[in-house]
Structures are given as C-alpha cells and as structure tokens.
Amino acid sequence: MTTKTTTTATNNLPSWVESANDATCDFPIQNLPLGIFRRRGSGDEPRVAVAIGDQVLDVQACVEARILPDLSPEAACALSATTLNGFMAQGRACWAGTRAALTRLLAADTPTLRDDPALRDRCLVSMTDADMLLPATIGDYTDFYASVHHATNVGSMFRPDNPLLPNYKHLPVGYHGRSSSIVPSGTPVRRPHGQLRPDDAAPPVFGPSRLLDYEMEMAVFVGPGNDQGGRVAMSDALDHIFGMVILNDWSARDVQKWEYQPLGPFNAKNFATTVSPWVVTLDALEPYRVGAPPRGPDDPPVLEYLQPAGNAAYDITVEVYLASQQMRDAGTEPVRLSRGNFTDMYWTVAQMLVHHASTGCNLRPGDLLASGTVSGPTEESRGSMLELSWRGQNPIELPDGTQRTFLADGDEVTFRAFCEKPGAPRIGFGDCRGVILPAV
Length: 440
Ligand code: CA
Known about the structure:
Blueprint: H1 4-9, E1 34-39, E2 47-52, E3 55-58, H2 59-64, H3 73-78, H4 85-88, H5 92-106, H6 111-114, H7 117-123, E4 124-126, E5 130-133, E6 141-144, H8 148-158, E7 174-176, E8 182-184, E9 189-190, E10 193-196, E11 205-208, E12 212-213, E13 216-222, E14 241-248, E15 251-252, H9 253-259, E16 273-275, E17 280-281, H10 282-285, E18 289-290, E19 313-314, E20 317-323, H11 325-329, E21 335-341, H12 349-357, E22 368-370, H13 385-388, E23 396-397, E24 403-404, E25 412-421, E26 424-437
Parallel strand pairs: 6-22, 8-16, 9-26
Antiparallel strand pairs: 1-2, 1-5, 2-3, 3-4, 6-7, 10-11, 12-15, 13-14, 13-22, 14-16, 14-17, 18-19, 20-21, 20-25, 23-24, 25-26
The structure holds calcium ion (CA).
Residues 143, 215, 217, 249, 372-373 line the site of calcium ion (CA).
C-alpha cells in the first residue's frame, strides 16, 4: 500500500503538461493510469502508454531514450511489451517504483522532457492521435453481482415475494464470462441475434434482440496471480489487484430471460463487453479507499475467509450518458441517465477476488473481474435500463422527443467514473463508450 505521506506529498504537485493541471481533468499527475496504444494510422506494434492531461506518454520511447533512470530492469522490460500482462505480473513494489519514476519525469520542475522539444515529440502523443487498444490479453473474465440494490431490484421484478436468493449475503455471486468479445471503448456493438420467447404461451423464435441493455460496472485487472490449489488471504487481496477500469456488460434481456435457468447467463452476455482503456492503479485510488458499508443488523455474519482485512471499498462516482443518433446529428449533448457510487456495493473487490480463488482456482495476471451492475438505493443510481425503466414499464424521455425502455439502434452509451473529495486530487477513468449497430 502507498503510504499516506507519499500521497500527501504529491497532492498539489503540478505537471509541465499544462492540460494535466486543469481541476476538471481526468488524468492529473496524481493519476497516471496505464494503457496500450498505437499512433493513429501508423501500423506500429502496440505500446505501453500513460495518460497525462490530454496527452499520451509513450513509455517505451521513454525507456529507449533512457530518461527513466530509476526504473528497475524488470519494469523497463515489462513496459516495452505490447500488452500490460507482464507489468501486471510484477507486483506492487515494481508498480510503485514505476509510478514514482513517471511522477518525477512529468513533474513541473523536471526539465528532461519539458525543455527538450525533439525528445518530447518522440515521447508525447496527443490523445486525439492515439488509438487505444485493450490494456491486456484477458485470459479469463468473470462477472460478479455485488450490488445488493441491483440484485434486489432485478429479483423483485421476477420474484416479488423473494427478491434475494438465500446465498446472496453469504458469498459474492458471479459467473464465468467470455473474454474473446471484450473490446476497448469506442468499438461499435452489433445488436445480437438470439433465441427469444416474447410470448410465454408460444414456442421461442430466433431473431434480433429487442431488449438490449447496458450494465454500468467497474472491473479490476488481476496483478500477480495465485498458484492452482492455493488460495488468497483477505490481508493479501489488494496485492493481487493491479488496477481498475469501467466496464459495460451489454445484455440482451430477452435472450437472458429465456436461457438463464438453470446455469445463468450465456448468449445474453457473450457478444460484447466494453472496457475503458486506461487502467487506474490502486496506488492512484488510494486516497479514495474507504470502508465498505456496514452489513445490516439482520444480515448473516460473513464467514472468516471473507472477513474484511482493512478498507477495500473505493469511493468512485459512476455516471451513464446516452445520445441517440438523432441527438448526435442535431449536436445535442448526451443526456445523463444515472449517477451512482461504487461504495454502494455489498461485496468489495477484495472479497470477490478471495472468493474466486478460494477453491484453489488460479487467477492470472490480466484476468478481469467485473463487479456487477453498480446500482444504489435511489432511482437516480440505477445502473441498467432494465431498472431505470422498471422492465419497460416507465419509459425514459430523451431530449430528441423519443422514449426508451431499452436501447435503440444508433444509441451511443457512455459511462464515466471519477473520484473527488476536498483535499485530494480529482482523478478520472476516461470514457467507456459504444454505439449500437443494427442487427444483420
Ligand atoms: Ca453484469
């Protein structure tokens, strides 16, 4: 864990990258999220990048120019790869050393790049000239169901008398997802076909999903893994987490409704999952690490292997925006559909990881664990259209005069997430965005 002293010392540190000093910027010098990029139109091999203001720092170019002298040889090697898997495998000490080296390079009083225009041209790329790729090769993807508000909302639509199943408050429920169809923000999403049963009295039909939805989630990338047959202790859980991204678990509700029993989601969720490209590290999130909400007085005690070992919830505001094709054509700003907070989850990312590995299941660097839909106790904080429109009963009015109960072709869904509080630097995650293409 980053010490409090370190965090405080860098709180007010400006960067010579002017755009990073804007108080509303997602990527100040205190954030330094990592990603994988390619210069637009270059055909280059993918390279490791760090976001700073509205710029992308080409980390491999910095390594090659020998302007990160404090970097360990292991870090320099891992940061010259085409994915972040190798760097994720290095562990907390290596990540912290790299973060310190990058902070020094980008600090306002460090002249190395600041005063060398030719070198700066080699190492800095405007975000508008960078294509962001997936941060890692994702071997395995798991999706949890950690918001009790989401589980209760959805459960009460289908089981009004018994919304929460008996296991919910004993273990973080999840399912193994599909990694091949995870795409970076900005990739269009094709409306899926599926087997649907719109009339419960008639046989199912095959055709385009009519009830396409999003799910606003956060997700963690696994750092160092665990050996098969071993487990992870709660006290070590955060050392196995590299960082966090925003995730959209696109969901075909009509496919889901017909297929989900008895084994859970399958085709309803395997056609596309979108992630934001910048991985915000736990070191950057440290000022926003808080205790999980207390369990209710009637909640069952949590079994010992899942008992919290320190704070492991994160105070992250999450927002969902929608812009129809018509709104974008008319230049209308996207409308905000919801705003919630990641602290409203019943289970923490540490508990999800520990439970996942508790059988001896081996997690590997670059595995992705998603939280489940982030919904809070209020209507405004509902993280899916299923909940916002309450299964289609309460249509949502858009600024273009149309209504939505689920997503229409041409709709662009954008998720944003950020942390802010007095006395700490605001940090953000960038966008997690996708447009719905018509079925073919
Ligand atoms: Ca989900």
